[in-house]
Amino acid sequence: MALLQIAEPGQSTAPHQTKRAVGIDLGTTHSLVASVRSGQAETLVDANGQAILPSVVSYQTDEILTGYPAVAQSEIDPVNTIVSVKRFMGRSLADVQARGQKFPYQFCETENGLVAFDTPQGKINAIETSSHLLTTLRQRAEHSLGGDIDGAVITVPAYFDDAQRQATKDAAQLAGLKVLRLINEPTAAAVAYGLDSGDEGVIVVYDLGGGTFDVSVLRLQKGIFEVLATGGDSALGGDDFDQLLVDDFITQAGLNSGQLSQADLRHLANAARRVKEQLSDLASVAVSLKLSTGEYQLEVSRQHFEQLIEPLVRKTLRASKRALKDASISPDEILQVVMVGGSTRVPKVRADVAALFGKAPLTSIDPDKVVALGAALQADVLVGNKNADDMLLLDVIPLSLGLETMGGLVEKVIPRNSTIPIAKAQEFTTFKDGQTAMMIHVLQGERELVDDCRSLARFTLRDIPPLAAGAAHIRVTFQVDADGLLSVSAMEKSTGVSAAIDVKPSYGLSEDEITQMIKSSITHAKEDMTARMLAEQRVEAERVLEALDVAIAADGDKLLSCDERDGLLAGMAELKQVAQGQDDKAIELAIERVNKLSEVFAARRMDVSIRSALAGHKVDEV
Amino acid sequence: MDNYFELFGLPEQYSLDQTALTNTFRDLQKSVHPDQFVSQGEQAQRLAVQQSAQINDAFQTLKVPLKRAQYMLQLAGIDLQAEQHTLRDSAFLMQQMEWREHLEALKQAEDLDGLEQFSDTIAAAQKQLNDKIAQALDAGQHHQDAPTWANEVRKLSFMNKLMVEIAQAEDALDY
């Protein structure tokens, strides 16, 4: 049922009704939700007028707190108050322990090794914690916009790998949000700035947040935001600046971290953040620390702070240079440098970035809000409120995808900075007579050795027809969709038999686990699961029927034979009827039947639209 | 529309109008990108992802000179990307070995200026070969004598790889 919406001149495709769409910046230190209202993107505020929701969740025996009330718990109950949960997304317990950083939490792991926290609310994994933040934002948006949310665009760091993206999408699903698209944070920021200024040219986005660093080079032309290259570090941000200050405090006070309690460490971290923020305006800051070992008065100068963070800032500049090189852009071709993320308030960061690119960076849009605002603008387009012809984002995959080959080496299948969506096929052959199964290990990263890359998943291909060694040719297709997420399909070429694939994500949850989590989640405890499934299928049915009505009215005469048309109309009538019933499975099957009936029609329309694009016409002129 | 040149409405030639290519790419993506089909159900998404991915692949293939040459030979019946075939041109093999040894020596000596000069030398050789290939492919010579031109394209591919290695060596010294 892939159809283009083609409107008669001067007529809209459907009764015009503004849909409720939001953009959500799910940040390491804080999160925001924004929406477009009367043509303007704006952040939505809570009952106290606050736009920022600190990304902190506190698990108490009788309640789950998010945002400021959770922050208040962070020093009282550090063990059960999760700060910067984004750093744990798509990560295993082993990953977290390997980094050697100290955390006050009671760590445990899910069945497949994902990191989780032991709390008075039970075992909670990072996806669930993120979903609690997203639920708070969803409820805020429903309240502000006056009804259910039709869809959300969620932002992720450009440098997030597949597991981290999938975890984010799962968290949104768990929070009851329909994800229109995951978009990259720097791209969202470019949208906010690009649409604001209307200038065309190369834009560099330098995005240093609480826990992640991204740099993206984009070309903006005729409403198309084309990402040329991206780079970064998904574990480098303002939190690391804070950690350096904490270590410095401990040294200055003549302590060692072993003497300090969890509450002390949280107190130090909070103090470090305040000192860092004050040093943006002051040359020197006095700090008094009340720890279990006593009280301490310290002094930190901006110069000293800058020395501490120098190596980290240099790391970001190196990644920026590399991204420029990958994009084949020289500094004098850059139209604008855009600063995003709270950490770009640090004067040294601004000065060093200006020196690198040879021009003063733009900071006219609040660096804390710009990502959410850009996401809201994109959500408005995707949900159909705004003409999609006005704006299109073409993003890239940040890290190469590869396969394990003999000797623990990685062979790249899709190189980094490839425009998505992208599909690449690779052929494999059997090496034993009668071999019917094969294992494929997919990795992400730039290094040559398997051990240096990130394991994404292991696939077992089964049901390969038993043939002589080397006779079976299995064509495996790797596809990365517009969200940056990987999927894999396989087929034996000589027989045309598609091989079954069992996916075992290395750092993710299976479909079943997600469904199970939704069922048992606190968010949906009061909701009837069946009612939700029924509602979802009805919405999908409506969507399918509406798009088909429009398509048949426009192209039915030209592109369908009488028989095809009658068959399709009969299928649609059936779907219309089934959708009024109570059986969600029956609706799903009826949708599938209609999809099957309309497949050829959809493909023909896609061809027509490609041809008309070639002819230089707009689709609605055909 | 399986032929990438046809997909972009361009003549099957090595020399091509990069501006027209880029503009057509944008127009095509505007008409098939999955973002245009978000509200139209899952099947629409799937089809759009496939179409959009094919257009991205076609664009990259036509945009990058080496890939374009490889693609034109593929259309003429020689699949250069999947092959295990090695080059049988002893003069070029000698040259190749000399270049490799030179690169190793520069790396050992951490000679950044030398690397830059070497990069210029290879770039010049690359351009010369590229021009030669352009002329031949535009004249359709690869249809008469595919093996010869496949060999020339293999050489170009080798030079590209060498350029990447020189750049990596420069980066390693630069930081």
UniProtKB/TrEMBL annotation, chain A:
PROSITE patterns in the record: HSP70_1, HSP70_2, HSP70_3
GO molecular function: ATP binding; ATP hydrolysis activity; ATP-dependent protein folding chaperone; unfolded protein binding
Keywords for the protein's UniProt record, in alphabetical order: ATP-binding, Chaperone, Nucleotide-binding
GO process terms (BP): iron-sulfur cluster assembly
CDD domains per record: ASKHA_NBD_HSP70_HscA
HAMAP family xrefs: HscA (MF_00679)
Family (UniProt): Belongs to the heat shock protein 70 family.
Functional summary from the UniProt entry: Chaperone involved in the maturation of iron-sulfur cluster-containing proteins. Has a low intrinsic ATPase activity which is markedly stimulated by HscB.
Annotated protein name in UniProt: Chaperone protein HscA homolog
The encoding gene: hscA
From TrEMBL, chain B:
SUPFAM superfamilies hit by this protein: Chaperone J-domain, HSC20 (HSCB), C-terminal oligomerisation domain
Pfam families linked to this entry: HSCB_C
Family from the record: Belongs to the HscB family.
Job of this protein: Co-chaperone involved in the maturation of iron-sulfur cluster-containing proteins. Seems to help targeting proteins to be folded toward HscA.
Subunit structure, interactors included: Interacts with HscA and stimulates its ATPase activity.
One of the GO biological process terms: [2Fe-2S] cluster assembly
Protein name as it appears in the record: Co-chaperone protein HscB homolog
GO CC terms, sorted: iron-sulfur cluster transfer complex
Keywords of the record: Chaperone
